[in-house]
Design brief:
Chain lengths: 67, 401
């Protein structure tokens, strides 16, 4: 099943852990809040990095979903 | 200064300035988590609360309606409110004051400072050179953030001794002797007012010039706001990172297996840095109870001071498996060293960069080190915890021990 990541904007406080752990999937905007790159679909090869980003977000703002 | 009797019961009479807490707070927090997750003390004006579990720390950090940031330091006697936006701001003033500063601290903006930081570390290590030992806090850690923040603010790096003295007075001495606080803040204001005028005449590529151009609701920053923010950037940017670098080097000096492993494989630095931040989180914040609240089954009474310990939350075994062990390859690490919620440390990207570079350069140059024989390590007390004296020896060096 394809995996998707999302950053819940109301929760993100700009710790930027996801950007550091999975720079292929996340980037920081001009205020330093995180956002997904593209539509958030995760290639199989980046599944582990997406999970790492989720498990290291102090605000629980990174959400994974199997479509 | 008042004479303080020793603490007999940490649950009903805690004191974070007690020498046992300053030296090694972790067993105290473990005991409190089991026995009394919200502790109280009447040693501080209007009483103070201390939450030792992650759950309550998080609940308080997220609740700015009941827990105001207008006081961010627990003091024996409250001083008149000092505004240092955005750290002392609550909603709705908080967001605009913070937004102003955020662009200067994004990962992209901070990455540009890395080469300069590396050069500072190398220069310090060059000076330590081939000696048999040094004080890792005094000769190394303390200089790095001072020079980086001075560069960012566009003020002379040589003023570092003054900056450290101000911080010592505001954050340590002032916890017990509040008479030093106002004169120190006035001295800082006079210093920064001079620099604001210089940059108004001669703008540069620095934070003061950047803030001179900033607008809130179309208006330039009012002087008290401007000065409060500059005091904050200086205070928050220095001894926090100095403490994080020092505590990490203390760990490596006292844990040879971790030191050898990290020196041999510096690719472990990203997880090691996060683990040092978790285990030795330097910063304890504070709140003031704005409206009576119930958290963790305890009543927080209006006006009470709250010691908001992210370091204690980071040691909570309910959230972190093997919380009392330092695992430099820990991959799941939702630590709260930079706070939680809207007041997340503005400088977290800067601090992470400085800590990573400082350890990387040190380990490249000085992979062999340990505490010096008979070393007396001295830890700072109060809001920011880190080693202020850290004598280390280089066993391999010429004349080494």
């Amino acid at each position: 099943m394809p995996l998707r990541v999302r950053v819940v904007a109301e929760r993100c406080q700009g710790h930027n852990r996801c950007c550091a752990l999975a720079p292929e999937l996340f980037e920081a905007d001009e205020l330093g809040n995180s956002r997904v790159i593209g539509d958030g679909s995760v290639p199989e090869a980046l599944r582990a990095k997406a999970e790492l980003a989720m498990k290291n977000c102090p605000e629980h703002a990174v959400v994974l979903r199997e479509d | 200064m008042s004479k303080r009797p020793p603490v007999e019961d940490w649950g009903t009479d805690f004191d974070h300035r007690d020498p046992r807490w300053v030296e090694n707070p972790y067993p105290i927090w473990d005991e409190l988590r089991r026995r009394c997750p919200v502790a109280h003390s009447t040693r501080f004006e209007d009483g103070a609360y201390f939450a030792s579990r992650y759950e309550e720390v998080r609940a308080i950090a997220y609740d700015s309606e009941h827990f105001s940031s207008r006081r961010v330091i627990v003091r024996e006697r409250k001083v008149p409110l000092q505004s240092s936006p955005p750290i002392t701001s609550d909603p709705p003033e908080h967001t605009p004051a913070r937004k102003l500063l955020l662009p200067a601290f994004t990962p992209q903006a901070i990455a540009k400072l890395e080469p300069g930081t590396r050069a500072i570390c190398r220069e310090l290590l060059e000076r330590i050179g081939a000696s048999a030992g040094c004080d890792a806090a005094v000769d190394y850690a303390q200089h790095i953030p001072v020079r980086v923040i001075a560069h960012m603010l566009g003020v002379p790096e040589d003023d570092g001794d003054r900056f450290r003295e101000w911080i010592h007075l505001v954050l340590e001495v002032g916890n017990t002797d509040e008479s030093v606080i106002l004169p120190t803040l006035q001295e800082m204001n006079a210093y920064f007012a001079g620099w604001i005028e210089r940059r108004r005449a001669e703008p540069g590529d620095d934070l003061i010039s950047f803030l001179l151009k900033a607008r809130v609701d179309g208006a330039p920053l009012a002087l008290p706001h401007f000065l409060g923010t500059l005091r904050l950037l200086l205070i928050a940017g220095i001894d926090t990172t100095w403490s994080a670098i020092g505590a990490s080097l203390w760990h490596l000096a006292t844990h040879p297996a971790d030191r050898r492993r990290l020196a041999a494989d510096r690719a472990l630095l990203p997880t090691a840095v996060e683990e040092f931040l978790r285990a030795y989180a330097p910063v304890t914040m504070a709140r003031e109870v704005a409206k009576q609240a119930e958290v963790g089954g305890c009543t927080f009474r209006e006006k009470g001071q709250v010691l908001l310990s992210f370091p204690a939350a980071n040691r909570d075994p309910a959230v972190f498996p093997d919380a009392d062990k330092v695992l430099i390859d820990r991959t799941e690490n939702r630590h709260a060293a930079f706070g939680l919620g809207r007041h997340r440390c503005l400088g977290s990207n800067l601090a992470r960069m400085e800590l990573t570079v400082a350890l990387d350069e040190w380990l490249a140059r000085l992979p062999e080190f340990r505490l010096a024989d008979g070393a007396r390590v001295r830890w700072s007390e109060g809001t920011v915890r880190g080693p202020r004296r850290l004598p280390v020896a280089f066993p391999g060096a010429r004349g080494g021990v």
